[in-house]
Fold this sequence. Notes:
Elements: E1 5-13, E2 23-32, E3 35-43, H1 52-58, H2 62-68, H3 72-84, E4 88-90, H4 94-109, E5 118-119, H5 121-128, H6 135-141, H7 152-169, E6 178-182, E7 198-202
Parallel strand pairs: 1-4, 4-5, 6-7
Antiparallel strand pairs: 1-2, 2-3
Helix pairs in contact: 3-4
Amino acid sequence: xxxxxxxxxxxxxxxxxxxxxxxxxxxxxxxxxxxxxxxxxxxxxxxxxxxxxxxxxxxxxxxxxxxxxxxxxxxxxxxxxxxxxxxxxxxxxxxxxxxxxxxxxxxxxxxxxxxxxxxxxxxxxxxxxxxxxxxxxxxxxxxxxxxxxxxxxxxxxxxxxxxxxxxxxxxxxxxxxxxxxxxxxxxxxxxxxxxxxxxxxxxxxxxxxxxxxxx
Length: 215
């Protein structure tokens, strides 16, 4: 790809409601002309109890976040500045992460998430491989190491590797600003960040690559 500044993102949250739940960690890697300029996993301390079901997934406790986290507003301000100048933002399951980030920006910073270009490795993987399609499944299929799933920074490193492997197998450029969604869960354009996004339906069985007309 010919993008100069690329930012990779991954979030861990208290739940899946993008308007009510909170971001607990943001893994972020900023790459400029192939060189890593910033690489960090930032924790947010909201001083709230963590739902048991969420804790089982990411193991982020209230105590851990109190000891290692920072003020959510300061974290989001930093992330906003990093993303602001990015030519491309990459996230596995981009719709979820970017919607969550958008709503957090609105709630805490009072401004929306605005992006130039988006790429979702999940969309690419789901288009060519059969279900299941989680990041851990993609890593297993493509022979990529992922020892600490749901650690934001480890997930990002794995996402970068997945994208690299996929780029060796097919043309990933056509997926820039094209996000797939499962047919039974339709997506409606409603966020500022997705103004340039073209959505297309995908199924579980991984045969969407034959639907060339969607591109």
